[in-house]
Design goal:
CATH topology: Peptide Deformylase
Largest sheet: 5 strands, antiparallel
Number of strands: 8
Distance between the termini: 38 Å
Bound molecules: zinc ion
Structural class: alpha+beta
């Protein structure tokens, strides 16, 4: 079911989400939560979404990144649910991107993040998984998993002159890239 998106200012976006237990993950309620997250992500046109964005305090986020996406990046990730995830940074190098967020609608901001990470998480069967990600995929994973720790991309903007409405971003910034 499509749920309304919690926007900047809603305190749930600033909560540290609770870890899920095996019993919770294997429950019918969780199957419904996964569906709600997926439906909402698709409806609002996101490439990822996290539970607090639909008002649920739980450590689960999902990402589905097709080879064609609105960020024009040449990386992809099939639909993946990240439960109780942890990120380990594997590089001192950073990569900058103009990020957007369903919870901060109509805006883009320039954020630099580590460009090589390892992510460990539990899958829908509560089995441990991990993989390494680089570049744009590493950025998307960090953005989504930040939501589970009460963080938003705007917290990482170092130069606030690089925060823009989407329309102005397209008009003044995108043309210069
Ligand atoms: Zn977001």
């Amino acid at each position: 079911m499509i749920k309304p998106i919690c926007r900047l200012g809603n305190p749930i976006l600033r909560e540290i989400c609770d870890k899920l237990t095996k019993q919770q993950v294997l429950s019918e309620e969780f199957t419904q939560l996964k569906q709600d997250l997926y439906d909402s992500m698709k409806h609002y046109g996101g490439i990822g979404i996290a539970a607090p964005q639909i008002g649920v305090n739980a450590q689960v986020a999902l990402i589905e990144l097709g080879p064609i996406n609105r960020y024009g990046a040449e990386v992809s990730l099939p639909l993946t649910y990240f439960i109780n995830p942890e990120i380990k940074v594997l590089s001192d190098s950073f990569e900058g991107n103009w990020e957007g967020c369903l919870s901060v609608p109509g805006m883009r901001g320039y954020v630099e993040r580590p460009n090589h990470i390892q992510v460990k998480y539990l899958d829908e069967n509560f089995e441990e998984q991990s993989f390494e990600a680089r570049g744009f995929l590493a950025v998307v994973i960090q953005h989504e998993l930040d939501h589970l720790y009460g963080k938003l991309y705007i917290d990482h903007i170092k130069d606030m002159s690089l925060l823009s409405f989407q329309e102005e971003f397209e008009k003044f910034i995108l043309v210069q890239k």
